[in-house]
Amino acid sequence: MYLNIINGYSLEQLNKIPDGFNNNIIWNIGHVIVVQQLLIYRGSNQAMHLSEELVNLYKTGTKPTKDVTQTEVDQLKELLISLITQTEKDYQNRLFISYNELKLGSGFYIKTTEDAMDFNNYHEGMHLGYMMSLKKFI
């Protein structure tokens, strides 16, 4: 669904922050990518498959500070697929042995990698809803 959204809008539209919003479609895409890696890999004491620079651009508490380029959009599109494939492989290979328990500000309590995956699905759905709202104003 995220790829369909990216592919359905121009670079200008992906970067547009409508009045009343503090982010844009492409920031939401980057954010769900980063949070998936933070929740599952960092939470399991494993190396993430992202640069710290990318994490710092899209982690919780950030917002867009500049327009992204087409090259950056293409990178995010590639990461949407490759990171899920890598996570599935790592999960099947039992890479995630332990988890650093985490209580989120929203009240969710994550004790295991499976909890992190469940919450990640919820989180991605929430941001999909944000993107659907943004689409109405671009």
List keywords for this structure.
two-stranded antiparallel sheet, Four Helix Bundle (Hemerythrin (Met), subunit A), 2 strands, mainly alpha
Strand order of the largest sheet: 1-2
Helix content: 55-70%
Sketch the major β-sheet.
2 strands, antiparallel
Total beta strand runs: 2
CATH class: Mainly Alpha
Mean pLDDT over the full residue set:
96
Low-confidence stretches: none
What does this structure look like?
The protein is mainly α and 138 residues long. The protein has a single domain (2-135), classed as Four Helix Bundle (Hemerythrin (Met), subunit A). It has six helices and two strands; from the N terminus they run αααααββα. It has a two-stranded antiparallel sheet with strand order 1-2. β1 (102-103) and β2 (109-110) form a beta hairpin. α3 (25-40) crosses α4 (52-58), α3 runs parallel beside α5 and α3 runs antiparallel to α6. It starts with a helix and ends with a helix.
